[in-house]
Amino acid sequence: xxxxxxxxxxxxxxxxxxxxxxxxxxxxxxxxxxxxxxxxxxxxxxxxxxxxxxxxxxxxxxxxxxxxxxxxxxxxxxxxxxxxxxxxxxxxxxxxxxxxxxxxxxxxxxxxxxxxxxxxxxxxxxxxxxxxxxxxxxxxxxxxxxxxxxxxxxxxxxxxxxxxxxxxxxxxxxxxxxxxxxxxxxxxxxxxxxxxxxxxxxxxxxxxxxxxxxxxxxxxxxxxxxxxxxxxxxxxxxxxxxxxxxxxxxxxxxxxxxxxxxxxxxxxxxxxxxxxxxxxxxxxxxxxxxxxxxxxxxxxxxxxxxxxxxxxxxxxxxxxxxxxxxxxxxxxxxxxxxxxxxxxxxxxxxxxxxxxxxxxxxxxxxxxxxxxxxxxxxxxx
Length: 381
Prior knowledge:
The protein has helices at 2-8, 24-35, 50-63, 87-108, 123-126, 132-150, 174-182, 190-201, 215-221, 243-248, 252-270, 292-306, 314-317, 321-332, 355-366, 370-377; strands spanning 13-18, 39-44, 69-72, 115-121, 156-160, 207-210. The relative contact order is 0.08.
């Protein structure tokens, strides 16, 4: 996409470098560029290998006009929570970003470039569940851009959010796409992204974040990000819209049943179900299609509507509508119990939690401060 944009801006000589040969789709686009009079040189090389890249620049010097700009867009992901990151995962993600950008810097710092662009990620700015290695790799490129600027050299590191149609996010499966949407993350249209790239190249800035995001939804899912703490504004809703206020006006005899129906409706909303009646009271929510990120969203929804802090492990500890309702009535809302279906945390269903659920739960915990974790362990008090 960047290559096509460069030709649209008037570039007549392009060098495309990658570890693998171009795909059939890419070759078709290259052929179209060549038919329009653009000279395209394709080189197969590993940007993280300095010897490979030295050879690339030798070939450029002997076969092409003077190099005027670089766009470094290489990258891979290998997601896992920090406890499961290992040397291989770190290296595989770091090499194209860290070694690659550093090699390009060393081999071009004496050239008179017009631009030196690194495709970074919003993960380095805001973090991203399971992507500690990826966030660190992109943060290096952000720092390199500042380093080059301090040396008087051109550099712009763009912390991109997800793109539609192209890029890593566009290749994610439907479940991952839905998670991004639930977190408040949208997608940048390619034409819009290229227009923004053009604007940034006209600015004297080292770093810029470009994100399509619903901040209200994002901050509900990730309220503990220090960078955004001053920007978070508590959403005001009419008193009648908050379930806790409606509950206060109900006869005491009706409150427990109302809580149960309220929990069912919130579960249905998170699972995108048209009717809450499809949710059985004793059905495990994880069997009904809920995953760990949805569990976090459900906890956040319940907490907002009840105006009470709730533990991060809420849905794992009470994994059915009935168990959740009993816990909320007995421990949070102080509604007298009329049944014997009391559930305690770490019940026998805990052993059925998958590794993926545990990974996401651990990552959710990792984003919290020690003081917040202590509060949650004490039941939010």
